[in-house]
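Hi R.,

Here are the chain sequences for the assembly we discussed:
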Amino acid sequence: MEHNLQNTISLLTRTPAALNALLRDLPEAWTFRNEGEKTWSAFDVVGHLIHGERTDWMPRAKMILQFGETHTFEPFDRCAQERESQGKSLGQLLDEFARLRLENLGELRALNLQKEHLTLRGRHPALGVVSLSELLATWAAHDLTHLHQISRVMAHQYREAVGPWSAYLGVLRCAGHSS
Amino acid sequence: MEHNLQNTISLLTRTPAALNALLRDLPEAWTFRNEGEKTWSAFDVVGHLIHGERTDWMPRAKMILQFGETHTFEPFDRCAQERESQGKSLGQLLDEFARLRLENLGELRALNLQKEHLTLRGRHPALGVVSLSELLATWAAHDLTHLHQISRVMAHQYREAVGPWSAYLGVLRCAGHSS
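And here is the predicted structure of the full complex:
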């Protein structure tokens, strides 16, 4: 389907509550384990989502509206959560993510974007010219790629425990598809 | 990690609320669309989870406790939701899933399973001999495989809308891994 701003906002609104319902107070055996060296746990992913709320989506949207293609977005730091999540509990991160998302969606709604705004373009440091519409669609799809990742990382913890049923569990054959 | 009954119950307890937070009242453009012919929408997946609550997990667990390997489990009907979800809303399905899961977890806790019960074995119609521990671990991993699927099916709807960012979104390269 084409990008639809209301559908994007509907999804973005729900992600913090969905992650909260899934992860809060879940045993750390689920939430702090990863898939091996240099991979992320659910805890790491929530920290990454927080960093996106702070530095990626709305800052870039406002940059497109203000500067168009003349300014290049700041590169996104994919490892920021290693510093920023230190000493915090998963509950604190879930609260922080929910608060930042709410603020950002408030700002997004206040922009009162019209169809003509969505075709405006900006400049991504690696991907080149991108549209505001693509940025906002990616914000939603990025939530989904990390929900996909969290479910995979958690399922990985039971890879052995499920015995022969592993043959039926597609999630256990997912390699993550990260480049 | 090894199977841990409390960790399994912790996860099983959270899935209905997580799906509720993600899916309830979300536009149908997200929840009723699939990945193409003979694939499932989020609506279909919730129906499938309901059928599992009715016919798969607890019935099989009780069968292992009562009959061991002497009785073979009933085969699981992977298409049951096509009949059973007809005429229902997604909200109704989410309610039904939450109610059945709550009942089943009540029954599971009432069994007061000890370590020696978890090694008891039953007979799967295709996989052969399986343990109660493997069945219960699979119940949890099955929730995760379908959360993985739902996030993928929903992301698929924005495959074009994200433009060049598709290169960074692993979920868009996931083929589902179903056999």
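The first helix of chain B runs from residue 5 to 23. The mean pLDDT of chain B is 96.

Let me know if anything looks off.

Best,
T.
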